[in-house]
Amino acid sequence: MAGNNTKRRPMGLKSSMSKKPKTDENESVVDSSQMINDYEDERTATIALKSKDGASDDFEDLEEIYNNAMEALESDQEQAILLFQGAIHDCDRIIKIKDSENQILSLPTIFYYIYGMSLFKLSELLDPEDSVEYLKLASQRLNQALDSTNNFKNIASDILLSSKINIGIGKCDLSLSRLSEESMNLKHVDPCLSKFSIAIESHLKSNIHRKVPNDPKKDADSDSGDINKNTNIDQIYSVIDMVLTFAVISHDFDLKLHCISWSKNSLDLLKNDLFDPERLFFLAKADWILAQHYLDSLDTGSEEDSDVDDDEDEEFEEKNKISAFNDPEYESNSTRATEYLSSAERILTEIFEKEGEKSQPEVFTMLGEVLLNKGNFISDNKEQESYYKKSAKMFNLAQKVSGDDSIVPEHLLEFLQDYQ
Questions:
Q1: What's the CA gap between 398 and 401, in Å, rounded?
Q2: Which 3 state secondary structure label does DSSP give 355?
Q3: Tens-digit pLDDT profile for residues 63-102
Q4: Domain of 356, in residue numbers
Q5: DSSP assignment, residue 42?
Q6: Considering 13, 75, 346, 414, which has the largest number of Cβ atoms within 10 A of its Cβ?
Q7: Could you say which of 99, 126, 151 is where a domain stops?
Q8: Same domain, 54 and 141
């Protein structure tokens, strides 16, 4: 590491990626109508949709409500919430009708899929105290959808719907694991990863090849009646992102490593001859997560002694470094952190060199943090300063491209001001 440098960011300022969700394990499953109270809310009453000839079909109407809700996710979340609630209200109504006619078994697969995914989306959008109930009921409905696929034919549309169902079940169950410390283990997580793997394999077997879209901001979870290839493969990337985010919050290193290995293996399956910045970004994210793990292990000692008086800082830091350098475990963790930082730097730099300011803001933010942390390991003052300047440049680009200064984590703003 370098000598005295007032601008140097100290180790221990971590990424803003990891946030631990609140947990609530003592909840019981309730009926969806009790959770949403949509019968008492006129805004979520059944939305009547009609085709061009004036005829109306319950399932077509339901699918259109759901598709409209998915489209509204980016532009108007309040409208999306109302539409998802309306879809669930319609599902409850249709079930009552079919049950009274002894035709409950005639409900199509897409019905249960829409029911389940609407509940899942509300669990994310509303972040309710009873999100466990939303997720459990969503998983139940999606498993009903999966059970009804037994009569599916081996055609592309059926394969795609089965894949989406498996993705939905995996997302629900992984979200449930996040909400309970007891479920954050390999026993509960591995079945979710298996569901995701089945979905990915189905996509590959159906010969659906991804062309990198011109607009990388395309919603990764968009569903529509006219499904396109880009959207379906983008769903796979949204799954990988979810698994990597789960790896960030896991305190179990074996589970963290398992999720990262699964993600990298899945990304290898999606590799082709095209330049795919999204795939490269997630490869870099996997390395960055591992680098953070080893950086955190280096920070542990210094955080415990963070209450040292200011006038003793310099002497304390020097003693700390001497002690650390004589520790084999510290040296090993430093080496591994540097290796993963270098790998992430190489991948993210490749994206930046080919896309420039067209890159997503997250690319700049992550590259900025990677460069900053790697700079902390460099002993040559001039080279270290170069890394810090490149890091600040990336943070500035992130703010410029996103139009949002808050995209740079708050704990890095002081560093950024030093290198403006």
A1: 5
A2: helix
A3: 999 999 999 998 999 999 999 999 999 999 999 999 898 8
A4: 285-420
A5: G
A6: 13
A7: 151
A8: yes
